[in-house]
Every structure is written in structure tokens, then in C-alpha cells.
UniProtKB/TrEMBL annotation:
PROSITE patterns: HTH_LACI_1 (PS00356), HTH_LACI_2 (PS50932)
Residues in HTH lacI-type domain copies: 60-114
Entry-linked InterPro entries: HTH_LacI, LacI/GalR-like_sensor, Lambda_DNA-bd_dom_sf, Peripla_BP_I
Classification lineage: Bacteria, Bacillati, Actinomycetota, Actinomycetes, Streptosporangiales
Swiss-Prot/TrEMBL keywords: DNA-binding, Transcription, Transcription regulation
Annotated protein name in UniProt: LacI family transcriptional regulator
Length: 396
């Protein structure tokens, strides 16, 4: 497959697994910290007397919050009633203690609404996208913003039309998750029009050097190197790759990582026959896996967890056992992947960390602080479960 993706201009590597592992160095300084905590919920203890707001009818005691925060009950009362004379750090400790009991904050201490933020995500039928949306929406809410969720779907409203709708509603910025910026052949002029008018945007999982903005990505190439290394350690040599269409940036990068892993770990460079390009669905994974199994593969790396489920289905359709006869590795670590049969070995995207940094970058742009117009790349993690095992004797 021809590599049409522009390589990074320069990179800085970070040792922490949960931090970005690389960035192109063209922008200003960037803060990676982001607030967290619950905004609402239900409790079970005795009621609090709080003016200017209400709790669940049965709520926790002042003493419980005071003990959690390490302050007096009088201090808790002052914070919950919005009174002055409490140090900012102490006030924050009380609010965090309150959040730990999963209660709605009194109106006096709630973050005021700051405006609307557009959130355009790919097809919600893949559970990784609702996972991104949940973290982004909750984090924006803690900063006073309301997310306007727009879900792309085949045959539905396209990204440009959604963008126009969001602009009509006066959004303060937009976060794009796996949008047109992930398609190397798409027209990216819409993003340039947004940046030209000064609207802050952040783009997640995809990259183009045509757009001057902050990008947040998972290390797609590194993920496939991890998968190949794991399978090679189990004795597999005929390792296939099931991915989406060649024009997508994540596919380009995953393919690069797969090729490098096969060359570095197994000394195999002629792998074209073990790469199957299809679509990012269960059905696409099943079709790709059938091809790869017919070509003698004993293990398959998949572009996402949905494709991995399809690969398992394809193996069983040929009376092959997973992992005894065929090993399968997914990508994303979507919710519930540990509960399918067999539990899926997969590469975990650091969804929470990526989402928090995306929100922080957008809010910094809105505040005029500035976010680096570069790509922040996050290290994935191998999660070994039950869908991979040693290669059968005749596969060695």
C-alpha cells in the first residue's frame, strides 16, 4: 500500500504511559491537567440544610463530608451555602468530598453555564465513540459548557452540514472525533474556514498538516507493533492485519506499525498478502478474517474491537477455535470487551486521557491562552485476555 501520509516533522517523547508520547513542536506551551468529579447523583444519609439549592431528599451528613475533606462541619456549611471566608484550596477540598458522595452540587456553588460546545463524533454504533463523548461532555459540564452532540452515520447528515448547524447556534468551539481530518483524501477546507474565522477547534484521532489546530491521537503505529510483538512471543509467524480503507490516517499508521513489527520481530517484509482492507464493522472484520484465514494466517490484528468480533465469528464459521487455532487482537478496549466469548485481547486507547486533553486544549483556545497547534500522540496499552494463545504446532 502506498504511504500518502505526511510523516511528523519533529517529535518529543514522553516516558509516562498516560501522557502524550510525542508531539510536533510548533505551538505554545500546553497544560495537560484537567478537573474531574461528579456533578450529580443520589445519596442515602441524613439531610443537609443548604440555602440556595437542594440535595436529594435523603442526603449525607455534614460530618461525613467534613471527615472526607478534613475540615470542620462549620467550614462545610460555609462552602455549601456559598459564604466567604474559606480558602480556595479548602473550598475545593469540600466540593471534591461532596462529589465523592455522588450528590448534585447546590446552586450556589455550581459552575455557571458558559456556553455551547459542538461535539461531532463518528458513528455511535461503535462503542468507543460514546465512550469519548461521555468523558468530553462531562468534562465540559464541569467547566460550565454544554456539549451539543452530533453523531455522523452513513447516509445521515454530513460533517459540514453539522458544522453549519452548530455555527447557527453560536457554539464557542468544536471538537471533532474521527471526522474528515482522519480521511487523507477528504477536502479539509471546512476546518480552515473555521480557524480563519477564529473559532477554536480540536481534532481527535486523525491528522492533516493542512489545518492549523490542535490534534489529539492514539499511537496507531505503536499499537500494531505491540500486537505483533505479543503474537510473535506466542509463536505466531503468519500474522494478518484486518483494517479499514487505505485512505484513512489511522489505517495508514496501523499498516506502517504492522509492517515494522513484522520486520523487526519476525524478519518478514513481504506481508502484502496478509493485509486485508475492508470497512470498520463486525461484517468488515468477518470478511477480512475469512480472506486472511484462507491465506494461512494463524493470528489476526484488527483495526478495532468490532472488527475483532467479526474475526472471531469468521474463525468459528470455519470450525476453528479461538484462541486454540486462531488468535485475535482488537483495538480500542471498548466497553464490555472483557465479557465476550472469549474475552478479547486488545490494544487499549487511553480514551479518558485523550478526551481530557482535547477539552483542555479547546478551553485554552477559548480563553485566549493558546493551545499547541500540533499533534499530541498518546501511548496505547496491550490488554491480554482470552482471545490469544500459543500458536499450534503446525503454525510454528
Amino acid at each position: 500500500m502506498a504511504d500518502t501520509h505526511t510523516p511528523p516533522k519533529s517529535q518529543i517523547f514522553f516516558p509516562m504511559a498516560a501522557a502524550p508520547v510525542a508531539m510536533r513542536t510548533t505551538g505554545k506551551g500546553f497544560q495537560k491537567d484537567c478537573a474531574s468529579g461528579a456533578l450529580s447523583g443520589h445519596g442515602t444519609a441524613a439531610p443537609l440544610a443548604v440555602s440556595g439549592g437542594t440535595f436529594d431528599p435523603v442526603s449525607t451528613r455534614l460530618a461525613d463530608i467534613a471527615a472526607k475533606a478534613g475540615v470542620s462541619e462549620a467550614t462545610v456549611s460555609r462552602v455549601l451555602n456559598g459564604k466567604a471566608g474559606v480558602a480556595p484550596a479548602t473550598r475545593e477540598a469540600v466540593i471534591e468530598a461532596l462529589d465523592s458522595f455522588d450528590y448534585e452540587r447546590p446552586a450556589r456553588i455550581r459552575q455557571p453555564r458558559a456556553g455551547l460546545i459542538g461535539l461531532i463524533v463518528a458513528d455511535l454504533s461503535n462503542p468507543i465513540f460514546p465512550a469519548f463523548a461521555e468523558v468530553i461532555e462531562n468534562t465540559l459540564a464541569m467547566h460550565g459548557y454544554t456539549a451539543v452532540l452530533c453523531a455522523l452515520a452513513p447516509g445521515g447528515i454530513n460533517e459540514d452540514d453539522y458544522t453549519d448547524l452548530l455555527l447557527e447556534r453560536g457554539v464557542s468551539g468544536i471538537i471533532f472525533v474521527s471526522g474528515l481530518h482522519a480521511d487523507s483524501q477528504a477536502d479539509h477546507g471546512g476546518y480552515k474556514r473555521l480557524t480563519d474565522r477564529g473559532l477554536p477547534i480540536v481534532l481527535v484521532n486523525g491528522y492533516t498538516d493542512e489545518v492549523d489546530a490542535t490534534f489529539v491521537s492514539s499511537d496507531e503505529a505503536g499499537s500494531m507493533e505491540l500486537a505483533v510483538a505479543h503474537l510473535a512471543q506466542l509463536g505466531h509467524r503468519r500474522i494478518g492485519l484486518a483494517v479499514g480503507q487505505e485512505r484513512f490516517v489511522p489505517v495508514i499508521r496501523k499498516t506502517q506499525g504492522y509492517r515494522k513489527g513484522m520486520a523487526d520481530r519476525l524478519g518478514v517484509t513481504d506481508v502484502d498478502q496478509w493485509i486485508s482492507n475492508t470497512i470498520f464493522t463486525i461484517e468488515g472484520g468477518e470478511a477480512a478474517a475469512r480472506q486472511l484465514l484462507d491465506r494461512g494466517c494463524t493470528a489476526i490484528c484488527c483495526a478495532n474491537d468490532m472488527m475483532a468480533i467479526g474475526a472471531i465469528r469468521a474463525a468459528r464459521g470455519q470450525d476453528l477455535r479461538v484462541p486454540e487455532d486462531v488468535s485475535v487482537v482488537g483495538f480500542d478496549d471498548s466497553p464490555l470487551m472483557g465479557y465476550i466469548d472469549p474475552p478479547l485481547t486488545t490494544i487499549r486507547q487511553p480514551v479518558r486521557e485523550m478526551a481530557l486533553v482535547a477539552v483542555r486544549g479547546l478551553l485554552d483556545e477559548i480563553k485566549g491562552v493558546g493551545s499547541p497547534h500540533t499533534e499530541l500522540v498518546f501511548r496505547p496499552e496491550l490488554v491480554v485476555r482470552g482471545s490469544t494463545g500459543p500458536a499450534a504446532g503446525d503454525a510454528l
